[in-house]
Sequence to fold (113 residues):
Amino acid sequence: MGAPLEPSWEPSADLGALTRPVAQNQCGDRAAAATINSVRTLRITVKPNARSATLTERDDGTWRATVKTPPVDGKANKELCRLVAHHFGLRPSQVTIKSGAGARIKTIVIDEG
Fold:
């Protein structure tokens, strides 16, 4: 995320009177300033100490992940974030664990914005 958006005043067609404020992003693109970041939430069951790292969606809409690392010092959680980011083509910093950091069933939030 960049600097906060600064409102600017847009003149109306009649005599240049000031009307509603319009948000502008850093590039001056007004349409992009109105775009809201897309956030997705996933429920993932994690199996640490697996032979391979995989991420698959189940029929009920939940996900199953296997990670190679053991659940020690958050290493499995870091690998899970990298695995989810790679699967969706995102940066690992866009994936966070909302709940379940110490459990096998986790709620993951993905910021696709």
